[in-house]
Structures are given as C-alpha cells and as structure tokens.
Design a protein that fits this description.
Length: 242
C-alpha cells in the first residue's frame, strides 16, 4: 500500500503515551479556521510512502518506545488512508509496536475505517466545536462523522482521549465548555482524559508562505492561565458526573 506523507517526527511526546514515532499524512477534508498546519490540508502533495518502507524506518526507533510509546498516525487526516494504516498496524504489531490514531473524525465510518480503528491501541479524537453551526462556520464540515466515530470507539471499548483547541473569542468561556459537555453527555466518561489545547500563532507564517488568507490573523494566542482555568472547569464538571 502507498499513501502521501506530509512529514514524520521520530521523537514525538505529545501524540499519545510515551515516546512515539508520529506520521503526518497529507490532506484533510476539514478546513479549520484555526489550523496551525494549513500546509497539510491540500490533497495534492506529500511524499508517497510505501507501508513496508515506513515500517522498516520506524523499527529503527523501537528501543525508544518504552513507557507506553509506539506510533501515532496523524495529519492532515489519517483515516483518509485506512487500508495503508491497517497494513502498517498489522506489520508493526508483529514487532510488539502499538499504534494510535490522532484524528478529527472527518471521514465517514466504513468497513476500512472501522478495521483501522479496531487495530489501533487508542484513538485521540479532536472534538472541534460543540454544535453543527460551529462546525459549519469554523471547521468547514459537519459534526456528524466525529460523533459517529466517537460512538463507535465507545461501542468497542477503544482506549480514547478527547481534545479540543481553545481559541480566544470563539470557545474560551466556561459557558462554551459547558456546551461541549452537553454535547458529549455521559460519553465523556468513556475517555481516559479530555484535554484542552491552547490556540497559538506559531503557524501564522505558513499561511503567508502558502499565500492564503489567515482568518484568525488578528487573534492572540491563548494564555496558559486562561487555559488552566478552563481545564479546571472541565475537569471539575466531569468529576461531578462520575
């Protein structure tokens, strides 16, 4: 199998447990207003990668995958390439290496996507907005596929993390956090953790390089203090649901 790879990181520590080898695929159906890697969005581009060659490269780093480490497939949107991912997962499993999927849930569930999810050790799912209107306005898509993936992961008891990027002026209030909780309901209790991530401006130069308009060019980065307050609010609300 072959798939377009945007980039790879051999010492990733933020894409799952332990030290991981992260593979970022090219192409994404969503067009998030706050995307910090807009260069991964176009379907054209990327470097064609063969599953066997990628697995061989990853095996060089196996000694670092201690403490729950492994491989994370990210993007772009990794589940655009479920057959490729499944082949890699199956080959890596024979060497005792587990794989995680870091996904926006943008792709509709089908047999190939389910198979890739089934073979993963965990799913990191980005819940971008708390309603359909927010997805249409800021994400350029629908909330239906992400929720369908969430429900599938819960139904098969897949190890699950949830994430949401917090953007000043869009979803950085306690009231907005409560909307996410209302959307998810008891499903949030099926996740090991629900992590809020701060919007930052480090990717702004990529918009300039691409010659694209940056819709949030006047928005400042979210402060660590505000992020901590919102995370505490979220954690407290989840604890009260248990």
């Amino acid at each position: 199998m072959q798939a377009p790879v945007h980039s790879e990181e051999s010492f990733a520590t933020l894409d799952g447990t332990g030290i991981r080898y992260a593979v970022f695929f090219q192409g994404c159906p969503f067009k998030c207003a706050y995307c910090h890697n807009p260069d991964t969005q176009p379907f054209a581009g990327g470097t064609p990668a063969q599953a066997d060659a990628l697995v061989k490269k990853i095996l060089r780093y196996k000694t670092y995958f201690k403490g729950g480490g492994g491989v994370t497939f990210s993007g772009g949107e990794p589940l655009l390439h479920p057959e490729f991912i499944l082949e890699c997962e199956q080959k890596l499993k024979t060497f005792g290496i587990g794989c995680a999927l870091d996904t926006s849930g943008a792709v509709a569930l089908n047999e190939a996507v389910r198979a890739a999810v089934d073979a993963s050790e965990m799913v990191i799912l980005d819940i971008k907005m708390p309603d359909e209107e927010g997805y249409e306005r800021y994400i350029g898509g629908s909330i239906k596929n992400p929720l369908a993936l969430l429900d599938y992961c819960i139904s098969i008891k897949k190890r699950l993390w949830l994430r949401t990027v917090i953007v000043p002026g869009i979803n950085d209030t306690f009231e907005k956090i409560d909307e996410y909780l209302k959307l998810l309901g008891k499903r949030v209790l099926c996740a090991e953790k629900y992590e809020l991530l701060a919007f930052h401006t480090l990717g702004f130069s990529k918009y300039e390089k691409l010659g694209w308009d940056n819709p949030l060019k006047s928005v400042p980065a979210l402060s660590n203090e505000k992020l901590a307050l919102l995370q505490a609010h979220l954690d407290g609300a989840i604890a009260a649901m248990r």
